[in-house]
């Protein structure tokens, strides 16, 4: 299968997910849920089989994993901030629950009890890690990174394992972690406060002095560099990697773009 | 008489469910454990597990398989409570600080999502696809009901039908499904689990109407929250709908908002209590209860049937 075919299939699934998540009243008050196309591409990977298109059933499986992802992301928007209107907050809570319930309903209708179990287990782990990150419960950067890895990867990793594609999980997990760190890096540069940055700052903080931006940035970049190397090694090791799959990972990982860590160092002097 | 005296013969099994609930919410995260336990230990009627256990007695009862449905339903209900407290900005539940009040919204959201996931995980111990289809459709309806409740807040032109549909989704369906899943999980005949669904639905409707009456008639101490909370949050319940048939009372009710003082609230409640709204609401609640009792007539005669009847009557007469 070519990468363009991949994209075409991802488009169809994207539309299906949009349709399923549509709720007219929610739409009036809260932002439409963001559907991450890259994640759809990755969830397609277990079903890559020659030239054939994904089946209706496979499309539903992929969509349910996406419903869950969207549900969790929606609940991330429920904050303690008083800026949002009460109605907005109320509907954001309910939208998240509604999207989760669609995951259960879709899989219940197709009688995929096994996949319900596997994905529920992923949600459980993700929420445990989110609480640890929010409460800054770490003594080392490695511990924090491990939890971010779980938060970013669990749904897809459990999905891959369920469809007997375990061999891709380490590469997938590095890829998702890499991408999240890039986003966190960008947030830091834009002086945005995130739960991750707060957790990292709390590990790096010396006595009562808060960790400065350079220190946090350097910790992110060091990790990014390590993960990038890991990914490159894995892409070389897994042979033969079908060209479309290589392209899929490279699309998600802009190593060749100006965002590479070495270039960033050069740009920032 | 206390509710749990009615089904005291289930005590051993209910204790087992309670232990199972405790272990179900156990987590590697210390804070998550604390938050979930905080909610679990606040107690509750555990009415859904009780209905599961009782209904299962109409089939081949085996606590080891039936407990999965009982625990799953209670966990799903618990998760919805945690989320509801964020939605309602509630400080107290059963007289204790809510998770969002004790910690914050974010911890409440993570805890709610965690408990919900645990509920579904428990449910997957039941391999019967029909059970999952029934429960999943119910959860979707429950969500739609909650969304409709927000949509209908402070909407004074709503009618009885809007209210009934809302409480059906909000409360009655989960109780109905508790009865149905209990029967399904013990392999009871289809006719029995359909009857039990109807019974649970009618009991649930009656239960919610009673709850809505109590919001106006019970004391803050009994409710664990200020009296008239529904009204001050814009929830138009059955007694309010009836009270609004009187134009003068309607004008008073329409002036209520979240900023209404306790003194003003007391006066509005007093006006509602002196109308016929409460009595008429009781009559509707009683009508659903009678329907529930009639549903029971079609079930095999046994001790469980008598217990279900007693629970239904208790719910109809409860004072808080």
TrEMBL record, chain A:
It holds the Pfam family HEPPP_synt_1. It comes from the Bacteria. InterPro entries: HEPPP_synth_su1. This is Heptaprenyl diphosphate synthase component 1.
From TrEMBL, chain B:
Its cofactor is Mg(2+). SUPFAM superfamilies: Terpenoid synthases. Pfam families: polyprenyl_synt. It comes from the Bacteria. InterPro entries: GerC3_HepT, Isoprenoid_synthase_dom_sf, Polyprenyl_synt, Polyprenyl_synt_CS. Residues 7-34 form a coiled coil. The keyword Transcription does not apply. Keywords: Coiled coil, Magnesium, Metal-binding, Transferase. Belongs to the FPP/GGPP synthase family. This is Heptaprenyl diphosphate synthase component II. It comes from Rossellomorea oryzaecorticis.
């Amino acid at each position: 299968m070519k990468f363009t075919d991949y994209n075409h299939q991802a488009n169809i699934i994207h539309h299906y997910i949009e349709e399923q998540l549509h709720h007219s009243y929610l739409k009036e008050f809260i932002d439409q849920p963001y559907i991450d196309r890259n994640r759809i591409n990755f969830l397609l990977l277990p079903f890559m089989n020659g030239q054939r298109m994904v089946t209706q059933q496979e499309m539903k499986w992929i969509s349910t994993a996406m419903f869950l992802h969207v549900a969790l992301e929606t609940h991330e928007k429920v904050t303690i901030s008083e800026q949002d209107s009460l109605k907005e907050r109320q509907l954001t809570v309910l939208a998240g629950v509604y999207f989760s319930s669609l995951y259960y309903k879709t899989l219940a209708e197709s009688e995929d009890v096994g996949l319900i179990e596997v994905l529920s287990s992923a949600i459980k782990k993700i929420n445990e890690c989110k609480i640890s990150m929010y409460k800054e419960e770490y003594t080392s950067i490695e511990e924090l990174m491990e939890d971010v890895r779980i938060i970013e990867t669990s749904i897809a990793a459990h999905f891959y394992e369920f469809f007997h594609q375990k061999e891709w999980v380490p590469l997938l997990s590095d890829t998702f972690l890499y991408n999240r760190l890039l986003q966190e890096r960008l947030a830091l540069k834009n002086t945005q406060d995130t739960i991750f940055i707060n957790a990292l700052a709390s590990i790096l903080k010396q006595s009562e002095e808060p960790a400065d931006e350079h220190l946090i940035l350097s910790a992110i970049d060091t990790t990014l560099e390590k993960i990038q190397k890991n990914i490159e090694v894995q892409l070389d090791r897994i042979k033969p990697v079908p060209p479309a799959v290589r392209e899929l990972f490279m699309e998600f990982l802009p190593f060749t773009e100006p965002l590479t860590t070495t270039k960033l160092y050069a740009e920032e002097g | 008489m206390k509710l749990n005296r009615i089904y005291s013969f289930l005590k051993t099994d209910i204790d087992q469910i309670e232990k199972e609930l405790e272990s179900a919410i156990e987590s590697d995260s210390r804070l998550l454990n604390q938050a979930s336990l905080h909610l679990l230990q606040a107690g509750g009627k555990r009415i859904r597990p009780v209905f599961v256990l009782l209904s299962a007695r109409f089939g081949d009862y085996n606590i080891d398989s039936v407990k999965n449905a009982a625990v799953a339903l209670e966990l799903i209900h618990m998760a919805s409570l945690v989320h509801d407290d964020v939605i309602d900005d509630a400080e107290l539940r059963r007289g204790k600080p809510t998770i969002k009040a004790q910690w914050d919204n974010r911890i409440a959201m993570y805890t709610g999502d965690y408990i919900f996931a645990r509920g579904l995980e428990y449910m997957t111990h039941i391999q019967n696809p029909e059970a999952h289809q029934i429960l999943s459709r119910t959860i979707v309806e429950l969500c739609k009901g909650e969304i409709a409740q927000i949509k209908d807040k402070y909407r004074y032109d709503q009618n009885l039908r809007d209210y009934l549909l809302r409480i059906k989704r909000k409360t009655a369906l989960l109780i109905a499904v508790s009865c149905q899943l209990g029967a399904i999980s013990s392999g009871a005949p289809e006719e029995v689990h359909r009857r039990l669904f109807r019974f649970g639905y009618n009991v649930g409707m009656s239960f919610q109407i009673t709850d809505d009456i109590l919001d106006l008639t019970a004391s803050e101490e009994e409710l664990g929250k200020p009296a008239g909370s529904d009204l001050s949050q814009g929830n138009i319940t059955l007694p309010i709908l009836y009270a609004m048939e009187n134009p003068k009372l309607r004008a008073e009710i329409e002036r209520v908002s979240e900023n209404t003082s306790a003194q003003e609230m007391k006066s509005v409640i007093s006006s509602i209590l002196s109308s016929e709204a409460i009595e008429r609401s009781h009559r509707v609640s009683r009508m659903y209860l009678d329907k529930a009792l009639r549903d029971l007539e079609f079930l095999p005669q046994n001790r469980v049937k008598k217990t279900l009847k007693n629970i239904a009557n208790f719910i109809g007469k409860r004072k808080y």
